[in-house]
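Entry 14. Structure prediction run on the chain below.
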Amino acid sequence: MPRTSPFLAACLAGFALGGFFDGILLHQVLQWHHFLSLVPGEAWQTQRAQILADGLFHIATYLLTLLSLWLLWRARTGLAAVGGRLIVGAALLGFAIWQFSDVVLFHWIVGIHRIRVDVPNPLLWDLGWLVVTGVPPLLLGAWLFRRRGPGMRGPAAAFGLSLLLLAAAPVAAMPAPGSLSAVMFRSEIGPVEAAVAVLQAGGRVVSVSVEGGIVVADLTEANSFALYRAGALLVGRSALTAGCLAWSRPAPSGAAGPRSPI
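Output returned:
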């Protein structure tokens, strides 16, 4: 009797992958929304609040990843019995569950963001996102789950799923030559002081948030430890980090929280 259900472990792993997929693609690459893009109130619509919320979202995804890896390890004695189709099918179902729960809970019920916040009809984008990223893995996962039997071995499928999870974080943080980075400082550090700290650490300042504490810079020759000693909370040396810390495109008239680029 396995100590942990292989189905539950694989499903949670797929759920975590769904979080990585959304965070990297929608927050960082496409920059279609922040996690709290549509939360009303001036305090919530500052760059610092939006960036910190995105950061907490990513931390939660990492915690889900660690939990799913731990559950897969605990379920290792039962992997051979269930087969690889169940593992892959459960992961696909977990990925689909993430997409549907995100859209239904956070987009429609709570209303803190949409797939795109800068379009006249965000509902169409929500539905289109589900059709593209939610329905196919749901149908494929259900089909694989029903077709239990000979196929890929359970331990091999679980190992591949674990490798995919372990690769998600470093791939997202892989630096690119000539890419810009973002540095977030403590709230009491103003824009001038933050820019000076980056220059003294060997970086080249590209832009500074007027709200203070957020600097986009070329850190190719910079000393990250010097930045942390100067009060930095986050130093992102990634092609995607600057995108994650960039501001969403302005929302259309009538949408909550008008925004502007850094």
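Residues 6-172 form one domain.
Filed with the rest of this week's runs.
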